[in-house]
Each structure stands twice: as C-alpha cells, then as structure tokens.
Amino acid sequence: MPAFQNLPAAPVAKKKPFADTRHGITRSDDYAWLRDDNWQAMFKNPSILDPEIRAHLEAENAYMSAAMADTEALQKVLFAEMRGRIKEDDSSVPVKDGPHAYGTSYVTGGEHPRYFREPREGGERTVLLDGDREAAGKGYFRLAGLDHSRDHALGIWGYDDKGSEYFTLKVRDLATGEDRHDVVVNTGGDGVWAPDAKSFFYTALDENHRPSKIFHHILGEPQEKDRLVYEEKDAGFFMSVGGSLLDDFIYIDIHDHETSEYRLIPTKDLLADPVVVAPRQTGLEYAMTEGGDVFYILTNADGAKDFKIMEAPVATPERENWREVVPHRPGTLILSHMAFARHLVRLERHEGLPRIVVRERASGKEHEIAFSEEAYSLGLSGAAEYDTDVIRFSYSSMTTPSQLFDYDMATRERTLLKTQEVPSGHDPDDYVTRRVFAPAPDGERVPVTLLYRKDTALDGTAPCLLYGYGAYGITIPASFNTNCLSLADRGFVYAIAHVRGGKDKGFAWYEDGKMAKKTNTFTDFIAAADHLVSEKFTSHDRIVAEGGSAGGMLMGAVANMAPEKFGGIIAAVPFVDVLSTMLDDTLPLTPPEWPEWGNPIESREFYDLMASYSPYDNVAEKPYPAILALSGLTDPRVTYWEPTKWVAKLREKTTGSAPILLRTNMDAGHGGASGRFQRLEEIAFEYAFAIKVVGKMG
C-alpha cells in the first residue's frame, strides 16, 4: 500500500520565463522569480519578503503538513524518545583558566546554554550569561559564545536573532551581569580581546554577507569610530580573527578551500599594521599556533599532501625560516595541532581512524593515545592555558556514549571526567556497529559505518537510512548519536557512507571528490547503496537517503542518476541549483566556493561540468521517489530559493506518484531551529518521513 494517499492538490509554481546566456549557451529557468530581488535586505528583515513568494512558500508548507498529518503522533513519540535520552540539566566539566573555571550548563526544559564560572578548584557557580533569558520572545535565537577578557572582568558575547548569521556583539560586566553600552552589529560572531581588556578585534560582514573587514573597537566608543585594521579585497576569501594562548598576537586568518594567508598583530603594539607570515600562493595551506619563542605551522608546503608540521622563530616567521618538526607521511593526514609549554599535540587520521599524538618539545619523543574499537570518533579540545601538562579530549563510537577525559601528557595518566548520560537507558550490548567497504565503479573501496540492533534480521527486509555528505574535506565521524537509536530500535540499519569529497581516507580522498572529479561523490554513494543491498542489509525500495547542504547536492544528484535505488530522499538545505549559484558572484559564498567546485564564469569547462551534474538542471521526466526538502528562509549559505525551485521542477517533471514535499522554516537559516529541543522536533519530523516511506508506521 502506498505510504502517501488521499493528498490534496500540490502547489504549482507559476512559470515566468527567464533566460541566462554564458559561453554562448542559453539556459532557461521558469522558476527564477522565486528568488527575491531584495534578498540581502530580507535576510535582516524577513517581513519584507515579496508577498507572492511568501504565499507560495506558505502553500508548500500547508501541502507538506497535509502529507505528513498522519505522522503527528509518531513525531511526538520520536521527540519524546530523543528528549528522554538527553540529560536536561546537563553541565559541561569546567575548563580551568587562571583563578576560575568556565563552563556551560542547561536547565530542565531550557533550549539554550547558560555560561557560568566557578573558583578554579570548585565552589559556587556564577551564571554569566543565560541563553534562555536572552532568547525570550524571539522566534529564532543563536548564541555565538562568551569570550572573557584576560583579567576575567569582562566578556564579549554574540547572538543572531534572525538565522541570517549577522551577529551582534555586546560587552558584559562579568561581576554585575550587566551589559555595557558597547554594541557592534553585522559581525561574523567572533570578538577577540586585547590583553589589556580595553579593546577588542572583530570581523565585519559586508552587504553580501562576506567577512571582508577586521576592525578594532575601543570600549566606550561608538562602532562608527572603530579603526579598520585590514580589508580583504578578494571576495573569494574567508576571513576570521583570533588570539593565542599566550596573548602575544592577534591572528588574522585568510583562506579559501585551497590557499591560506596569516597576518599577525603583536599585542604589545595594537596599532601596528598586520604583518604577513607567508603570502598567499594558490594551493599553499598553513595554520599557526604559538609555542613561546617559536610558531608551529601545519602546512602542505613542498608537496606534503597529508600535511607536516614546521617551526619558525616568532621574530622571523617568514616561510624561508620554516624548519621541519613532524615530517609528511603519505596516508597519515594531520588534522590539527596545539602547542603548550612542554608539549606539541596533534590530531591525525590513519587508515580512516583518528588518533592523538603527543610530542615532548625538548626531546622530540612521541606517544599515541590508544583506543581499541573498530570505528570511533575523537575530539581534541586541548586546554585554555599554555603552561600545562593536562589536555582534554572526548571519545565515542556509534555504540559507546561520549566520554570526556583529562590526559596528563607527562605521566600519560588518563582521567575519566564524565560519561554521557542517557536518562532513558542505553545498553551498548543491544547494538552492533560495523565498518564495511563498498566497491566503487573505479575500484576504490568506500567505507560505510553501520549501526543496528543485534536482533535486526539481515535478510534484505530491514529499512535503512543512508547518510552522506562528501565535500570540503569534512569527515563524518563514527560518533555516538542518541537520535539515530530511534531508527535502530524500529529495525532500521543506520548507515554513513564515507564518500569521496571528505578526508575519511586522507587528503587524496578529498581531492578525488572535488572540482572535475566531483561525480565520484555521487557514484560512491550509489555504490554504498548497492553494496548494502547485495550484502542483505536492506533492499533498494527500503533505503531512505539523507544529506544536507553540500550533502543535499548529493541527494539531488543521486535522485537524478538512480531514483530507482531509493525509496525516499531527505534533502536538508540542499545545494541543488549549483550552476546558477556558482554563476552569481553577488551571493555570499560563491567566490570563496570556486576552489571547491570550479568557476563557471571564467571556464567553459567548469560550466559544462556543473551543467552535467547540477541537480536542478538535470531534473528529467522519470519516476522520482518520495522527496522531502527542508530549507530556512534566512539561510545565507544555501538560499531558500534553491530547494524551492528544485521542488517546483521535480513536481513538474516526475512521472511517478510519490510526493515531493518542501518544508521552509520561516524563522531560521542554514542550521535550522536554534534551541536544542526545537532541533529535536525537526529531526523527529525527518525520521517520521523516513518511517512513513518504508511503511513502518504500524
């Protein structure tokens, strides 16, 4: 029996012919009108959205609600299950810094974190910032964090109350809890204190939502008087500002997806012009951390594809003075590094698994922090102080709840600080986690991480949610996720396809899934689906594919390439109108994205490549599976009109009877709902769709 029956008529978007000619090729787009001409202003004030567009989005939401009406009870059950696995009054383990220790906590029923501090060795906690109080009365609210000054007297905190990722910064007196008059708007959310706590540096966003300028704000002065420290003229580069543990330098980090440049301001002379460390050179990446009299530099220089670590004198950090400390080892990708008074720490990935390596700076001796599970996830948080032997890291697997450890780098003693509580109960022995390898068309082996209950029948009848991303070198970790237990407990196999475009198998895995090789991402995902079917984990009509953002592009591509191999598709904030977006250099992310996808404005070759796989451009008359697209009205990363146009075209072209649904969050942007329980409601909705598609409602 079909999962969706007796639906009302679906919305039909008007067609308004629009043509665009590039490289002598003319493309027509009947749904281009769904992009509001005034989108920049609308992101800051959603009420000015064109009424015709708003009416269409609301009609889509009404249709979606009708199609999913019979899942409302299921959504509530799923939400209750997920919420029941969260310790509502949870608290982080405070991080020591000077006379205090800082942390975050939640109250029962609270959506947003509270920032607190307590005496270094424990004692009464003081709430510095209450996220729930600040969010009161707002449809959307997201905190950017709280950064305390070196003297612990003041804090910079930021928030976005529209979902457009334009953050406002405020300065709080941490003793009284009162905000000062300093208010800085249209920032990227980061503010970095000068050591004297009389000023701070921040990144400003321009009218196209790009981080184009670094300013220096003096406390008590209006924002209009802030000094411009640096302006990035190339719209293709991202930019952020940060500080060092020693407070000796302000870092300006300028980069795209393949090129880096650092500029330094010594905090002993805040008015000094930023000094370039190594001028940008296409393909040269580097990241810096300070180690007293030297900088440690993580870089791919000189062909070090999987990166190496160099050092350079603080006084002369130019590239000609870089000296190798940790050599390049092909197949072992160094992900990040941290420096402390006596140790250098790095997080790296070897054979698809992460590991932490500690190096004694004086002797050069190294040791690894070892783990035994077949697949797991590590997080390295380090420490807030430089002169310490103790760092902090987290560990989890698909079946093992997250554990937080302090680690003494000198004695090698590991102290368990906290194990993630699952209040409703969790027995790891009830579940199985595995890593299998799917053969890709070109012979590569694509890792697939699986989670399922031990009593799940592996005879091809089990439903499967297959998740994929595959872009920007981002690796999807095999970490503990309480939400997916709701699917596993209903007989699902929960699977993560570690497709090319991520760095799951090293930097080459990333390179083989970008630019001219982008289609490997799509064929890898289809290969993962085929392998799960051939090994009897599931069957094609019982696979629901899921991906978001660039992973949403993956969903759109596989829907066009192999619609018969999926029972349903969930595409969250999907980047599906690839060619149109990459041709529009006024959009916030387009110029910085060219090194990832190619520049179709300048290159006919990349134009043709994107035209060959762009999901929106390749929708055709064929039977598509049930599709759920999710978007946010104020999303500056994947603009709302991309999934809106895609759904309109899919609905026009499909020859099948499965519904094409669009849900637009009219109060949020790229990340969806901001509160922790609001986010669970969205996940419950997505899972209800998957359960409905595979006929497991009863």
TrEMBL record:
<comment type="similarity">
    <text>Belongs to the peptidase S9A family.</text>
</comment>
<dbReference type="InterPro" id="IPR002471">
    <property type="entry name" value="Pept_S9_AS"/>
</dbReference>
<dbReference type="InterPro" id="IPR001375">
    <property type="entry name" value="Peptidase_S9_cat"/>
</dbReference>
<dbReference type="InterPro" id="IPR029058">
    <property type="entry name" value="AB_hydrolase_fold"/>
</dbReference>
<keyword id="KW-0720">Serine protease</keyword>
<feature type="domain" description="Peptidase S9 prolyl oligopeptidase catalytic">
    <location>
        <begin position="479"/>
        <end position="695"/>
    </location>
</feature>
<keyword id="KW-0378">Hydrolase</keyword>
<feature type="domain" description="Peptidase S9A N-terminal">
    <location>
        <begin position="12"/>
        <end position="419"/>
    </location>
</feature>
<dbReference type="InterPro" id="IPR051543">
    <property type="entry name" value="Serine_Peptidase_S9A"/>
</dbReference>
<dbReference type="Pfam" id="PF02897">
    <property type="entry name" value="Peptidase_S9_N"/>
</dbReference>
<dbReference type="Pfam" id="PF00326">
    <property type="entry name" value="Peptidase_S9"/>
</dbReference>
<keyword id="KW-0645">Protease</keyword>
<dbReference type="InterPro" id="IPR002470">
    <property type="entry name" value="Peptidase_S9A"/>
</dbReference>
<protein>
    <submittedName>
        <fullName>S9 family peptidase</fullName>
    </submittedName>
</protein>
<dbReference type="InterPro" id="IPR023302">
    <property type="entry name" value="Pept_S9A_N"/>
</dbReference>
